């Protein structure tokens, strides 16, 4: 797998080695304090069509689920590595992503010669005070490490680096793989160097399947970690079947399955032994309750049980 990344994908646009060192230091520090660490992947992945990229393939993911989930993991006392797509939604600020920030600010009159001052209009930023207070607390505690990726190649290399950094934590590490990763790509060796010209006529592209990182992550890179993947479908009839197929194929612990049209209010948490429905009612939604709150409550409880089972199994083997 590592060799395929080096051979088929363009060099990453980020310093993967430095990111790996930062993640290792962050994880080791919080683990020494007895805190669990979760890697959250968030946002879509951009697949270039040219080496000097003008055109690329993308998906609709905004990173909303990953950004919201990061907040709830922080509230649950996890340390969070937030690996997100450049310009995707970010924890806390994601609540105000649909408005023009400039409309929420105004310049204050100051005496001549002094630096201009800016004031926020709280009425334009509903709930901003508690959001800002929570953000400042988490920032001060240094419990979130934010790393960006730009391309599919960046994402794959950084995920490998993250797995290596978190592997020493054993069962106290969680992988919450919420990023919408492309299934297809063009190998670097087959990609045109310059912009594809429309004058050449209709465009025909042959793409290869993106290597499945979940399998080596579970089997080799972080074999003792608690791993959650996501399954999004448009046909509810095949949702559970596809989720169970993923568990059977990759041997990880949980699939969070959802249908495109209801993804913000209803999910299924699928394991090898049960399917658990989580949903937000209209009343709950009106009170500001989000589905990610319920997802993280469910998963943190499962993670606790996973750690206990792993510890019991380890002690039993030592006894033998």
Give short descriptive properties of this protein.
320 residues; alpha/beta; 8-stranded mixed beta sheet; 14 strands; 37% helix; globular
* Radius of gyration, CA atoms, in whole angstroms: 22 Å
> What is the H-and-E element order?
HHEEEHEEEHEHEEEHEHEEEHH
General shape: globular
Beta strands, count: 14
SS field, number of helical segments:
9
Domain DNA/pantothenate metabolism flavoprotein C-terminal: 36-82, 170-283
Family: Belongs to the PPC synthetase family.
Organism: Staurois parvus
Protein name: DNA/pantothenate metabolism flavoprotein C-terminal domain-containing protein
Describe this structure in words.
With 320 residues, this protein is of the alpha/beta class. Helix content is 37%, strand content 20%. The protein has helices spanning 2-8, 16-32, 64-75, 128-141, 152-166, 214-221, 239-250, 282-286, 291-319; strands at 37-42, 47-48, 56-57, 79-85, 105-108, 117-120, 144-149, 173-177, 184-185, 208-209, 226-233, 254-259, 266-270, 275-279. The strands form four sheets. The protein has an eight-stranded mixed beta sheet, with helices on both faces. A two-stranded antiparallel sheet has the order 2-3. The protein has a two-stranded antiparallel ribbon with strand order 5-6. 33% of the residues are buried. The model has no long low-confidence stretch (mean pLDDT 93). It holds the Pfam family DFP. Belongs to the PPC synthetase family.
